[in-house]
Amino acid sequence: MALDPRIEAALNAPLRAGASADSIVAPRARVPKGYGGIPGTGPIGKSCSDCRACEPTGSDYRDWICARPRRAWERGTFISRHTKACASFEERKRR
Ligand code: SF4
Questions:
Q1: Is 79 helix (H, G, I), strand (E, B) or coil?
Q2: Closest ligand 1 atom, residue 83 Cα
Q3: For residue range 10-59, what is the model confidence (pLDDT) as tens digits?
Q4: φ, ψ at 33 (rounded to 5°)
């Protein structure tokens, strides 16, 4: 049984026109809102609570912010102190 030429042409066409091995890349990781970088890209075993940029917003030490978000409108967004450190990590000085 002969196939319709249009169906045969569709079956023989490449699955994604214009796609090559170079154009298929992994999705870019994004910096979460309020953070200075992508969590987990900093020193191993360190978290935001060990970083100088991690600051409390009030005297109750409940809410924390990062002082180094790239975008100005993200400043003041609460972060988790337990997040793995990012590439902008700077060791907090202990007394
Ligand atoms: S490691 Fe430091 S600079 Fe990076 S997100 Fe945490 S507090 Fe901000």
A1: strand
A2: 6
A3: 888 877 656 666 666 777 888 999 999 999 999 999 999 999 999 999 89
A4: -60, 130
